[in-house]
Write a structure and sequence with these properties.
There is one protein chain. This protein is an alpha/beta fold. Helix content is about 40%, strand content about 20%. The radius of gyration is 32 Å and the shape is rod-shaped.
Length: about 300
């Protein structure tokens, strides 16, 4: 067995050209080497392979059976290596057949992916997009192992070590059904506390959110009567009942089934970000995807 540690890549390139030209002088010209240098390379190759490889013939040199067996796999191996180390090609979305996997909660699906979807389909019709459930505690590991290409999460809770691109700042508004009798105008703090509220509890079953933290600092409370795990269900609940909710403004923007007013309490918003791993940071296709999504917002 040939010891790969003894093989110099330049020797294999020389062997490939020698097998093609079957002439030391012509091989030296193609390689831009001196003829003695090519002869030295051939001597090393003969020693490594334990075979003459090329023997004197009537019109130059003729390959041995061992050399003939090496010719095709050697050419394929060098071509594969050239392809592997070649500079990355410019990404052509019209010809792309990628499948991108992105992790997003229903909020990001509606506010980030939905606005980008038509443009992505138009520019890259042969590509596919798989939206998978967002597990905040697993983002870093999934990105590192290549299970996801992108994740959409708040900057404040983004895992360390990932690339991050802020997309927008979000703020909270008070929403209820269109025609809600208590939302004809901005409610007072006392009226706000008496309304029946819905909260989104991603972990399930919680009846407290950031609004309650702000209220408790002022010694106040509100009536939270329903807890759900997803934002989109809240929209349906509000449209069909007299319940209200503090929701991100982008989620309810332009929804004519809802009445949106400013809340009587200032609740801190958050920054939405796009996250990805270093492994795909410089990939032209991935760069295109990131730019396309950011430009759609």
């Amino acid at each position: 067995m040939v010891n790969l540690r003894r093989l110099d890549l330049n020797l294999l390139v020389t062997l490939d050209v020698l097998l093609s030209e079957q002439n030391v002088t012509r091989a030296a010209q193609r390689l831009h080497f001196s003829q003695p240098s090519v002869s030295v390379h051939l001597a090393k190759l003969r020693d490594i392979f334990g075979d003459p490889l090329l023997l004197p013939g009537p019109r130059g040199m003729r390959p041995t059976a061992r050399a003939e067996a090496l010719r095709e796999p050697l050419r394929l191996a060098l071509e594969a290596l050239e392809h592997a180390v070649a500079p990355a090609r410019a990404f052509d979305p019209a010809q792309a057949s990628h499948t991108w996997r992105v992790a997003a909660a229903d909020y990001a699906e509606s506010t980030v992916l939905l606005p980008a979807l038509a443009g992505l389909r138009s520019a890259a019709p042969g590509a596919r997009l798989a939206v998978v459930q967002l597990f905040p505690s697993r983002i870093a590991k999934q990105a590192e192992q290549g299970e996801i290409d992108l994740a959409f999460h708040t900057s404040e809770d983004a895992p360390a070590g990932l690339h991050r691109r802020p997309l927008f700042r979000e703020r909270y508004v008070l929403a209820g059904r269109a025609g809600h009798p208590q939302l004809k105008r901005r409610p007072t703090l006392a009226q706000f506390g008496r309304l029946e509220h819905v909260v989104v509890s991603p972990d399930g079953g919680g009846f407290r959110g950031v609004t309650d933290d702000v209220l408790s600092q002022a010694g106040l409370t509100r009536r939270v009567v329903l807890s759900v795990p997803h934002f989109l269900f809240v929209i349906s609940v509000l449209a069909e009942t007299d319940l209200v909710a503090m929701l991100p403004s982008r989620l309810v923007r332009g929804n004519h089934a809802l009445r949106v007013v400013e809340p009587p309490v200032e609740v801190p918003g958050y920054e939405m970000a796009m996250l990805w791993h270093e492994r795909c940071h410089r990939d032209p296709a991935h760069q295109w995807l990131r730019e396309r999504i950011a430009a759609s917002l």
